[in-house]
């Protein structure tokens, strides 16, 4: 009996040391999520032109149980649920194939959808918040997408890649004045056509000069934002885009924004994988914060907000206290 008690105590201590401490266990639900965006489309257009095609093609996937979709402005989210026991590797391959087939029936310019598996045990454990008093939201979103997000997945194992929130994508925005457009008897389609013809993506070539073969790029693609205003709208009329519109390096129309501590900010949700530990992920984030700050301009600061690790620690403390009381009474 003494050896049995010692074995139980030693095994319990070893289990506690190696146990993954977290709020939820990995559920491993048979679900696949499809995310599709198309800038400018209304919820009705997303539903009729994009989601409808996905739903028709996903009916041919084996083992599918239910299809749920939600359409908002310029974004559609589809959740596919499968019967228990379904081979999810085969299901993922079939969903990808049907998604590419559905894309052929969608409007021109639709990008391939993001297809991923998410578990109920994967949830945000906090937010990396970027804020600045001088930089615009578009610049903050660009920094979060290009610098912080890759470093997060590199320096913090067990996290899922997510896009930044709080600002729309950085874009070259052309704002047309309707009155000026009418004064020149032009339409918005004329502006779109001029932009397409005046900014052509052309590969660079090589020029043979004796023993040299230098790379010679063609100036058909505009590199300076101010050059967009010099594109002619109609040949022979001396009417340019700058006469009817303004061009700026900014962001598209923002449909929502993040307010952190009373200031407009951009944040990256830190979503942990269902098999990762919340405490380990949060500890790695605090350790990597100096590296994140070193990769940003001096006018931009990054901080870790809305930390969920205290909830886990309080739960562990509560379980330990109740266990100690029960053991003492026993």
Care to describe what's here?
The protein has nine helices and 15 strands. By secondary structure, it is α+β, with helices and mostly antiparallel strands. Strands 5, 6, 13, 14 and 15 form a five-stranded antiparallel β-sheet that branches. A four-stranded antiparallel β-sheet has the order 2-3-1-4, covered by helices on one side. Strands 7-12 form a two-stranded antiparallel sheet. Strand 13 (258-260) and strand 14 form a beta hairpin. The protein is elongated, with a radius of gyration of 27 Å. The two termini are 17 Å apart. 21% of the residues are buried. The mean pLDDT is 85.
Radius of gyration: 27 Å
Number of strands: 15
Largest sheet: 5 strands, antiparallel
Beta-strand percent range: 15-25%
What is the number of helices? 9
What's the quick description here?
By secondary structure, this protein is an alpha+beta fold. It is built from nine helices and 15 strands.
SSE order and pairing:
Elements: H1 2-18, E1 31-37, H2 43-58, E2 64-72, E3 75-82, H3 88-103, E4 114-116, E5 124-131, H4 137-155, E6 159-160, E7 170-176, H5 178-183, H6 188-198, E8 205-206, E9 215-216, E10 232-234, E11 239-240, H7 241-244, E12 245-251, E13 258-260, E14 263-272, H8 278-294, E15 301-305, H9 309-329
Helix pairs in contact: 2-3, 4-8
């Amino acid at each position: 009996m003494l050896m049995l008690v010692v074995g139980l105590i030693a095994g319990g201590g070893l289990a506690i040391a190696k146990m993954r401490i977290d709020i939820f266990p990995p559920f491993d639900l048979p679900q696949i999520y499809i995310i599709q965006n198309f800038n400018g489309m209304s919820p009705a257009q997303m539903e009729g032109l994009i989601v409808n095609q996905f739903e028709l093609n996903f009916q041919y996937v084996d083992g599918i149980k239910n299809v749920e979709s939600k359409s908002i402005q310029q974004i559609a989210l589809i959740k596919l649920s499968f019967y228990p026991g379904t081979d999810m590797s085969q299901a993922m391959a079939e969903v990808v194939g049907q998604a590419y087939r559905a894309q052929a029936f969608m409007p021109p310019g639709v990008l391939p959808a993001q297809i991923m598996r998410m578990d109920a045990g994967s949830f945000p454990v906090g937010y990396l918040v970027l804020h600045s008093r001088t930089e615009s939201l578009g610049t903050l979103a660009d920094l979060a997408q290009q610098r912080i997000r890759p470093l997060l997945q590199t320096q913090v194992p067990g996290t899922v890649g997510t896009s930044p929130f709080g600002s729309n994508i950085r874009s070259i925005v052309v704002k047309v004045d309707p009155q000026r457009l009418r004064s020149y008897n032009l339409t918005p389609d004329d502006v779109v056509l001029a932009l397409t013809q005046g900014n052509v993506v052309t590969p660079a070539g090589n020029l043979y000069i004796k023993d040299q073969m230098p790379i010679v790029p063609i100036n058909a693609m505009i590199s300076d934002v101010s050059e967009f205003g010099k594109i002619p709208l109609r040949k022979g009329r001396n009417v340019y885009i700058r006469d009817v519109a303004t061009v700026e390096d900014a962001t598209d129309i923002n449909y929502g924004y993040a307010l952190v501590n009373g200031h407009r900010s951009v944040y990256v949700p830190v979503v942990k994988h269902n098999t990762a530990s919340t405490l380990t992920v949060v500890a790695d984030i605090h350790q990597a914060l100096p590296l994140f700050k070193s990769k940003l301009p001096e006018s931009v600061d990054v901080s870790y907000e809305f930390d969920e690790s205290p909830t886990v620690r309080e739960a562990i403390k509560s379980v330990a206290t109740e266990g100690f009381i029960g053991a003492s009474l026993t």
